[in-house]
Amino acid sequence: MIAQEIDRERRRRGRGVDGSSSRWSTLERFGGLRPRRRYARLAGVLGLVFSVLVVAVVVAVFVTVRDSSRSRTAGRRGSVELVYQAVPSSQAGAVTPAALNRTVQIIDARLAAFGIGGAHVSVSGANEVTVRFSAGGNAGRTAADLVAPARLSFFDWEADALTPSGRTVASLLPTGDQLALAISQGDGNAAPGDPGAGSIGLYQAVKLASTQRPAGSAANAQPGSQYYMFATGGSPACVEAAKFYGVAAAPARTHCLLSGPDSAEQAAIQGLPPGVSPSEGQLLVVPQGTVVLQAVPASFANPPKWADPTAQFYVLEDNVVLTGNDITNPKPSTDQSGTPDVSFNFTPKGQTEFHNVTAVIARRGELVSSPDQTLDQHFAVALDSVLITVPSIAYQTYPDGVTANDGAEIIAPFTAAFARNLAIELRTGPLPLNLTLICGDIPGAASCHLPQVR
Predict the structure, then answer these.
(1) pLDDT confidence of 42, banded at 50, 70, 90?
(2) 129 within a domain of the structure (yes/no)
(3) Which residue has the higher pLDDT, 78 or 412?
(4) pLDDT at residue number 46
(5) Taking burial as the number of CB atoms within 10 A of a residue's CB, which of 29, 176, 262, 311 is the most buried?
(6) Do residue 22 and residue 157 come from a single domain?
(7) Which of 349, 342, 358 is nearest to 325 (CA)?
(8) Is 357 helix (H, G, I), strand (E, B) or coil?
(9) Are residues 169 and 309 in the same domain?
(10) With 0-12 CB in 10 A as exposed, 13-18 as middle and 19+ as buried, what is 145?
(11) Under a CB-based contact definition with an 8 Å cutoff, are residues 110 and 425 in contact?
């Protein structure tokens, strides 16, 4: 009975690697904010440029099935044990044995490809995955990177991005709407998709997204509704949330994030910071068919946390035109200057879809442009819930779209090791299930190890 109570309390208190609730292990796996430097360059037939968050760990592993009824005991000396709960995703709508096994296989492939020895991955019961690896370095960073979904999504930027009115940018460009123009073309030194190019704060973004009609389809990157809890800036709840997430307190007359996004209301409530009650928060629900994406970070090494009052976001209709499943053979390479990058090809389906969507984008650019103003249109690439890049399609150069017969390159200021790691992550593919940290031997997480009762 005592062990059961401890286990229930451990699950209730499960937190992420940086002290935030467990679902933030992907959204906030890197840290703070630094001034941005622009590195975009044309590559091959397109200029497909996106810097990517990368898994930087892991390990050759044994995959076993562990008896779920066995009590968890302390990991081997010098090792870190992490226990995750698997939940459905856009890749798998239910937690099935097949989806669990595939998740473990991908983690296994990542571990083996990175070549860090001494790890063990297991599935237990109906919905848990346990990972153990040798301690060393930043275990919290390792934990977050290891289970990152790593899902690439491609959007038609102007057709999907929403203005605060709820109308798409594409629908407003012919009217000369200035905010639509800023989102489409950038504003000052901010390029499309950057903070400041028509972006808005998280509360504004979620509020806008929550007013949209449900539009579930196979094209959605996000399955089901997403639940958020907010409070008014300056309130005791916001003070506690700022401490919990390690961010500045939200100013008065604004709102702070208490918890979310979560796939269920109860999960959002359970994820509230310690000492904050549900009655102190405002629940907002984003229906399926709309997605909130963080603006392109100023630094992918230190992107702002979602709870940071200064973080910026965009709201898009969730109409994914391509995914990471539509690319093949990602590998480390170098560009013409010798800078490391990652090249890849498209699958036959991906190549067709890419050509089709770039043709639509190019033709729209021609329609909304004038002799005095060229308004090239864009597609957007997101990794999980973060925008990576928003490249343009020059309609004068590619009036019928881009064929990309020779594939594309991901060009950024990569080191050789970074490019290698990125290629591995893309090659092993996205995790079919989302993994939520229950407990682990890392700062901010509940302990997996039950205390001895004498």
Answers:
(1) very low
(2) yes
(3) 78
(4) 39
(5) 29
(6) no
(7) 349
(8) helix
(9) yes
(10) buried
(11) yes
Q: How many residues does the chain have?
A: 454
pLDDT (0 to 100) of residue 39? 28
Average pLDDT of the chain, as a whole number: 79
Q: What pLDDT score was predicted for residue 415?
A: 63
149 prior amide bond cis, ω within 30 = no
Residue 11 has pLDDT above 60, yes or no: no
In a domain, 192, yes or no: yes
- Whether 404 and 334 share a structural domain: yes
- 3-state class (DSSP) for residue 186: coil
- H helix or E strand, kind and range, residue 387: strand 386-389
Q: What angle do CA 380, 384, 386 make, to 5 degrees?
A: 55
Structure tokens, 315: 């709201």
Identity of residue 71: S
Confidence grade of residue 7 (pLDDT, cut at 50, 70, 90): very low
Task: Give pTM, 2 decimals.
Answer: 0.79
Mark whether 142 and 202 lie in a shared domain: no
Going by C-beta distance under 8 Å and a sequence separation of 6 or more, which residues neighbour residue 333? 340, 341, 342, 343, 409, 419
Name the residue with tokens 């359970």. Answer: 270
pLDDT at residue 342 above 80? Answer: no
Question: CA-CA distance, 90 to 99, in Å (whole number)?
Answer: 12
Q: What is the pLDDT of residues 308-334, one digit of tens each?
A: 999 999 999 999 999 988 999 988 899
Q: Are residues 6 and 72 in the same domain?
A: yes
Distance of alpha carbon 33 from alpha carbon 311, whole angstroms? 9
Handedness of CA 216, 222, 228, 234 (dihedral sign): negative
Domain annotation covers residue 160? yes
Tally of structural domains, the chain: 2
In a domain, 447, yes or no: no
Residues 13, 120 share a domain: yes
In the sheet with 282-286, reading across from the earlier edge strand, the strands are: 255-262, 226-232, 282-286
Rounded CA separation 357/362 (Å): 9
The pLDDT of residue 27 is 45
State whether 83 and 187 are in the same domain: no
Q: Is 117 in contact with 180 (CB distance < 8 Å)?
A: no
Residue 61 has a pLDDT of: 28
Range of the domain at 299: 37-53+150-224+287-414
